[in-house]
Amino acid sequence: MANNFKVFGNVVADTNENTLITAAGSSNIIVGSIVVCNTDATSNINITLSLYDLSETQQTYITKNEVILTEFSREILARPFVLETGDEIRIQSNVANVANVIVSYMDRNRD
Known about the structure:
The chain is an all-beta fold. 0% of the residues lie in helices and 63% in strands.
């Protein structure tokens, strides 16, 4: 079993719901931090983060329509949580190309 510490950064390119991270078939992921930055110089944005639980085939919200102020960053996740195999973290922004998201996590590969 290997523990790999990783960071993932992405710009949310559209206003659709997008998958940030999926726990692979041989992994559990411990998510330590999610930070969202609004790079727009004139407008606030709204962010929705959700967890899709594959074993329950259910989506639940981490935060819904969280306002991120103009040129401001916000840490969304207060405590670490675990993604089991097939679980996903998803994000949606009401404005394209201004939401920058960084996820810091540990991938516990069982192989």
